[in-house]
Amino acid sequence: MADIKIMLPAMGEGVTEARITKWLVKPGDTVEEDQALAEIATDKVDSEVPSTTPGKVKQLLFEEGDSPQVGDTICIIEVEGVEDSEEMKEEPPKSEATFTQTSFDSSSEPVAKDNKTSSKQETKYISPLVRSIAKEEGISIEELNKLEGSGLNGRVTKEDLLKYIETRTKKLIEIEKKAKQDILTAQTSPTATISEQPASESSLAHEIVPMDRMRKLIAEHMVRSKQTSAHVSSFIEVDVTNMVSWREANKANFQKFYGDKLTLTHLFAQATVAEIKRYPLLNSSVDGDNIILKRDVNLGIATALPNGNLIVPVIKRAETLNLTGLAKSINDLAQRARENKLKPDEIAAGTFTITNLGSFDTLTGTPIINQPQVAILAIGAVKKRPVVIETPSGDVIGIRQICILSLSYDHRVIDGALAGQFLKSLRDRLENFSLDQEL
């Protein structure tokens, strides 16, 4: 028996420590080589620490939330059939870490080894980073083993793999072009016989794109939410003409005084937080047969990322912030989300979420609740529309700025009447927005 020390790997220049956000194994678990052992986070990126060897987890040396230094031993793996030695006691950390927001899961199958050969004749080491890129591109382990690497002892580096992918892609494009030309020739030939569906044409009819790690996590989270909560949605139209006019009149001064942009999202957020304090059941969660009412309004703002994925940074204790504080917090978190610089605690502990569908000119929608919350508010696009306006002298038709608010809520906790009261109260607050309000 031998004990292998798993150390915190180096994760880039200037990174000296990382926070263990989640252990993916526990003592006694059997693990494979390159299987993810823990999720870690730095102020730059989220990562995983893979196992350097197959074996059994003997001991976890840090708790979730701890921040070990690069090179610290964080876990011990017990390996059967190997004698303990000084060489085996300290397994050097791997230099590559698997970035959870930008790459595929590195816990792919370990490289197959021939039991009849000696350790010196075993297949070469393939790093988790190279494995993840290969998995994304549909390259098998056998194919990787055939590559001539430029690294130490013939190891395949990231650069080697990218060059191989570029060459292989060019070949595939040439094959595809030839297949399309063959199909065209066959279809235009006067003597050609038309089959129901040529095999070459069928192979070009679709493309398989594997989900990246973040998309898989989103998919699992959304399905779990639908399975957990009894989703219902209610809608209400809101005349936000006053609010739009006030924002247009003050956005330049806001930018000048505070150095930040002022958007309608900030005004919607401020009004929503005020109404949540009046209807605290919307700021709750479910624990078995109990409803947990949250004192703080930790407001999540759904943010689209450049790669098409979605993340929800959280403004903690939003009820304590004025409009300026809310605007600065929302702008800062959204910007750092797009730059992949959020810290783990900045996307945790949300109690209510807002998603702005109007950013993409969408009128309305029925968003899925962000568990374990019980409600989510969708803000539709603000559009100019002719509407009937009631006046003391009779009804008139005017051009107004209208948007649709959609509230998805958990019917286990919130009934339609409460949802309707919340939406109506929020509408009244928005429609009565004072044009004399100061920054």
From TrEMBL:
<feature type="domain" description="Lipoyl-binding">
    <location>
        <begin position="3"/>
        <end position="78"/>
    </location>
</feature>
<comment type="similarity">
    <text>Belongs to the 2-oxoacid dehydrogenase family.</text>
</comment>
<dbReference type="Pfam" id="PF02817">
    <property type="entry name" value="E3_binding"/>
</dbReference>
<comment type="subunit">
    <text>Forms a 24-polypeptide structural core with octahedral symmetry.</text>
</comment>
<feature type="compositionally biased region" description="Basic and acidic residues">
    <location>
        <begin position="111"/>
        <end position="122"/>
    </location>
</feature>
<dbReference type="GO" id="GO:0031405">
    <property type="term" value="F:lipoic acid binding"/>
</dbReference>
<dbReference type="InterPro" id="IPR050743">
    <property type="entry name" value="2-oxoacid_DH_E2_comp"/>
</dbReference>
<keyword id="KW-0808">Transferase</keyword>
<dbReference type="GO" id="GO:0016407">
    <property type="term" value="F:acetyltransferase activity"/>
</dbReference>
<dbReference type="Pfam" id="PF00364">
    <property type="entry name" value="Biotin_lipoyl"/>
</dbReference>
<dbReference type="InterPro" id="IPR036625">
    <property type="entry name" value="E3-bd_dom_sf"/>
</dbReference>
<dbReference type="InterPro" id="IPR004167">
    <property type="entry name" value="PSBD"/>
</dbReference>
<dbReference type="Pfam" id="PF00198">
    <property type="entry name" value="2-oxoacid_dh"/>
</dbReference>
<dbReference type="GO" id="GO:0005737">
    <property type="term" value="C:cytoplasm"/>
</dbReference>
<dbReference type="InterPro" id="IPR000089">
    <property type="entry name" value="Biotin_lipoyl"/>
</dbReference>
<keyword id="KW-0450">Lipoyl</keyword>
<dbReference type="InterPro" id="IPR001078">
    <property type="entry name" value="2-oxoacid_DH_actylTfrase"/>
</dbReference>
<feature type="compositionally biased region" description="Polar residues">
    <location>
        <begin position="97"/>
        <end position="109"/>
    </location>
</feature>
<dbReference type="InterPro" id="IPR011053">
    <property type="entry name" value="Single_hybrid_motif"/>
</dbReference>
<protein>
    <recommendedName>
        <fullName>Dihydrolipoamide acetyltransferase component of pyruvate dehydrogenase complex</fullName>
        <ecNumber>2.3.1.-</ecNumber>
    </recommendedName>
</protein>
<dbReference type="InterPro" id="IPR023213">
    <property type="entry name" value="CAT-like_dom_sf"/>
</dbReference>
<dbReference type="InterPro" id="IPR003016">
    <property type="entry name" value="2-oxoA_DH_lipoyl-BS"/>
</dbReference>
<keyword id="KW-0012">Acyltransferase</keyword>
<feature type="region of interest" description="Disordered">
    <location>
        <begin position="83"/>
        <end position="122"/>
    </location>
</feature>
<feature type="domain" description="Peripheral subunit-binding (PSBD)">
    <location>
        <begin position="125"/>
        <end position="165"/>
    </location>
</feature>
